[in-house]
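Hi R.,

As promised on Friday, here is the backbone we talked about, encoded as structure tokens. Could you run it through your design pipeline when you get a chance and send me back a sequence?
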């Protein structure tokens, strides 16, 4: 018995020696060691070492004393956190910052707390979100561009490393419940299938959220989100559920979690990261919202008049000073008065649908905020509502897009082509985006748009923050210069938690943001962010002590093309200089008057770029979507499937075969039961682009959907009889060359039943929202007139094989896409 006591005493001493939490950091809600005891931890080293056992162990329980480890909780008074980020919302789109689109939920947070007028993002979604969640610059966390465009350099490989863990993991290990709803555009493409691995997913050890409900990728259909997950499991709640919309469903999910936590663990603080798809394309509001906004006639006078209205509103609200200038309208965008009546009709429809989407998204956010209040937790909840992850999007190009996937493949629809989808705009029959001039208007009073890091039109976003228990200047306005990397240190300061120096055994790189809590009680407090660099696709800027040097792009972001940029990205971009103390909007370039100041600023940018891994600069856009990325299927040319498989994303990267720009053969060995069979054999894509190989009332059919502009179909002559059959579709590509045509041949049991040419194919991608499926179609149909999802195959697939030929590109295309990587192979 003495030996046992000695061993346990030594164990307790060892536990005390390695515990990192100092005594003053410990808090007990009950007697230490009792079942109801809680404790805070030091927080610098996560996870905290095991708590020492301070009881007494004898041979018999009757003579022993138990001692329970305390439940880890945040420091006393730590707030709940509701972190909201909308998508592609320009500074002046919402009413809160002078816009004409009603956003009462954002208005509410601004009225209850503070409105920040000089808050900045990175000019693009994945980079902003990586910076938001980690508190570090986007290149520092390997996200210099969106993950789809990742390249093999430290600042651009899209893999957030274990030495820069996100706020979800930090708060979780300090006792918070952490959940994430909505967009995740920060998981590398090659791990996004249901095969994982899941280290880099929202629920993995780097991002650290305990629960996830949302979609992986740039965006998704709000009507049929075929890339939707619950934790790491793909789900299809929209199937056979007409009228279902993700914008509402996501709010329902978040509200349900708030209620569940309040009923089961009412005293446990939570963090919710709420990141809806709104308002990234596709703009998919419900009809009720479109009707409501259309009846308001907000955009009938056009984009030029809209800018003037917003500019006046902003001065009345005080979100820009009276001295601010309205920047010039760009020469290469049309004035409203020069447009035809048909074009005006189209553009007004685009604006109405977009505005309805923003109002709808804000309304559902308001429901989530109301759920926090209904739970009695609003007073001690820090709500940070960031209106957009970059400026308004120019990706709709000059006339708007009936389908976002058209521009992915280098197609710029005309007004006439878009008008064919006028009545369907915003419904599940479209994947729409608005014309560029609306983006410029929704970035009033600034120049430029999303993707442009040099000017505030790309990087300045409205933000409101409330915490009734702590922020008392309700309705106040703050003009300190801040950046999205400043959110994590603000949350940590609010929660009373230190910046961790080690997480999960890995030493952490320092957080690069600065906390914003100093602004809460003092509107005139000197700003603590004195320097900040910006860079995206080569456009760049450097802010320092009230000055900003800016190098705008040579090619406008709406001039999307598969051609390589004809520029020297380091030397051809022309620098401009602005004194922000006198010029709030970057309206007056003083570079020619102050060459020495400009030179100093350029040198400062280079120093910051070296420090934060910005180099090498790269101004390619579309070609980088096609570049080489890590993949578990790299070099694989033969695929074999048996039975049903669904929801495999990103062909050529995440697990699905990529059939573009090459020859291929698909062979299906099937059994047809008595009475016949129909259904999908294999598909990738759907209503907006893609292919399907299926039996239509028993007849073998292969369909290519070319961005809804054309459907090419190969079809047998009769339905298959009961028994075993071998079906084959063989495509001979007319390459080399992106998007070249070819000849397709359909065979049944070795006999040709149809053959025809297809003059062109898709050059870049089928699209990220639809997935690869065998034996079922879980997204949308490639041809609505042939079938509706899920169109499960009613026979038996014994084996389906796909054999791919080599990628056939011209030498110029290969160099454009792969650059020196391929040249060295």
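Update: got your reply. Pasting your designed sequence below so it's all in one thread:
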């Amino acid at each position: 018995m003495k030996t046992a006591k000695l061993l346990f005493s030594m164990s307790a001493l060892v536990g005390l020696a390695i515990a990192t939490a100092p005594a003053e950091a410990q808090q007990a809600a009950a007697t230490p060691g009792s079942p109801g005891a809680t404790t805070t931890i030091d927080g610098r080293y996560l996870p905290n070492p095991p708590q020492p056992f301070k009881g007494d162990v004898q041979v018999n329980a009757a003579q022993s004393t138990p001692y329970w480890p305390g439940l880890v909780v945040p420091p006393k008074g730590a707030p709940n956190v509701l972190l909201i980020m909308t998508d592609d919302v320009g500074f002046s789109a919402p009413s809160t910052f002078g816009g004409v689109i009603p956003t009462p939920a954002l208005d509410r947070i601004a009225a209850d707390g503070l409105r920040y007028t000089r808050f900045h993002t990175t000019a693009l979604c994945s980079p902003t979100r990586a910076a938001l969640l980690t508190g570090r610059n986007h290149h520092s966390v390997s996200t210099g561009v969106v993950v789809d465009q990742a390249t093999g350099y430290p600042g651009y490989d899209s893999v957030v490393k274990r030495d820069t863990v996100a706020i979800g993991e930090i708060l979780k290990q300090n006792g918070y419940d952490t959940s994430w709803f909505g967009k995740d555009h920060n998981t590398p493409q090659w791990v996004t299938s249901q095969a994982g691995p899941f280290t880099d997913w929202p629920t993995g050890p780097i991002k650290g959220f305990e629960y996830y409900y949302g979609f992986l990728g740039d965006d998704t259909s709000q009507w049929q989100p075929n890339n939707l997950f619950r934790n790491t499991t793909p789900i299809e709640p929209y199937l056979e559920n007409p009228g279902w919309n993700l914008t509402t469903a996501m709010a329902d999910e978040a509200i349900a979690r708030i209620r569940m936590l309040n009923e089961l663990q009412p005293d446990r603080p939570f963090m919710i990261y709420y990141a809806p798809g709104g308002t990234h394309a596709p703009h998919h509001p419900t009809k009720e919202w479109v009707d409501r906004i259309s009846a308001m006639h907000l955009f009938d006078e056009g984009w030029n008049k809209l800018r003037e209205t917003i500019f006046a509103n902003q001065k009345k609200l005080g979100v820009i000073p009276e001295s601010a200038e309205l920047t010039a309208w760009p020469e290469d965008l049309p004035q409203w008065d020069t447009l035809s009546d048909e074009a005006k009709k189209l553009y007004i429809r685009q604006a109405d649908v977009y505005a309805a989407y923003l109002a709808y998204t804000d309304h559902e956010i308001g429901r989530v905020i109301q759920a926090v209040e209904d739970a009695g937790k609003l007073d001690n909840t820090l709500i940070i509502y960031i209106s957009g992850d970059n400026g308004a999007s120019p990706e709709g190009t000059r006339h708007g897009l009936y389908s976002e996937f058209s521009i992915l493949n280098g197609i710029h629809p005309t007004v006439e082509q878009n008008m064919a989808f006028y009545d369907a705009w915003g419904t599940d029959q479209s994947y729409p985006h608005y014309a560029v001039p609306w983006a410029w208007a929704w970035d009033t009073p600034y120049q430029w748009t999303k993707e442009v890091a040099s000017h505030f039109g790309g990087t300045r976003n409205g933000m409101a923050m409330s915490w009734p228990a702590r922020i008392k200047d309700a309705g106040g306005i703050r003009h300190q210069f801040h950046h999205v990397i400043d959110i994590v240190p603000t949350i940590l300061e609010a929660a009373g938690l230190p910046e961790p120096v080690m997480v999960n055994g890995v030493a952490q790189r320092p957080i690069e943001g600065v906390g914003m809590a100093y602004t809460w009680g003092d509107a005139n407090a000197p700003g603590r962010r004195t320097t900040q660099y910006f860079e995206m696709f080569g456009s760049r800027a450097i802010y320092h002590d009230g000055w900003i040097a800016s190098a705008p792009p040579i090619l406008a972001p709406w001039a999307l093309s598969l051609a390589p940029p004809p520029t020297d990205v380091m030397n051809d971009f022309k620098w401009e200089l602005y004194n922000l103390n006198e010029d709030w909007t970057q309206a007056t370039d003083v570079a020619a008057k102050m060459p020495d100041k400009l030179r100093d600023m350029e040198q400062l940018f280079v120093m910051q770029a070296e420090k934060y891994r910005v180099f090498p600069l790269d101004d390619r856009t579309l070609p980088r979507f096609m570049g080489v990325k890590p993949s578990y299927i790299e070099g694989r040319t033969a695929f074999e499937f048996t039975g049903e498989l669904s929801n495999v994303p990103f062909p050529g990267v995440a697990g699905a075969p990529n059939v573009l720009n090459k020859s291929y053969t698909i062979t299906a060995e099937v059994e047809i039961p008595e009475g016949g069979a129909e259904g999908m054999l294999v598909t990738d894509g759907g209503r907006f682009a893609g292919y399907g190989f299926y039996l239509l009332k028993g007849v073998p059919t292969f369909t290519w959907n070319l961005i809804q502009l054309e459907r090419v179909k190969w079809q047998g002559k009769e339905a298959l009889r009961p028994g075993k059959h071998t079906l084959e579709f063989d495509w001979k590509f007319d390459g080399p060359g992106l998007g070249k045509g070819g000849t397709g041949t359909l065979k049944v049991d070795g006999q040709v039943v149809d053959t025809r040419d297809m003059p062109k194919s898709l050059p870049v991608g089928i699209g990220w929202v639809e997935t690869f499926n065998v034996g079922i179609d879980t997204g949308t149909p490639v041809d609505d007139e042939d079938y509706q999802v899920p169109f499960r195959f009613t026979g038996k697939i014994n084996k389906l094989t796909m054999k791919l030929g080599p990628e056939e590109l011209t030498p110029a295309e290969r160099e454009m896409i792969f650059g020196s990587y391929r040249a060295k192979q």
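One thing I noticed while checking it: The longest strand covers residues 723-733.

Thanks again,
M.
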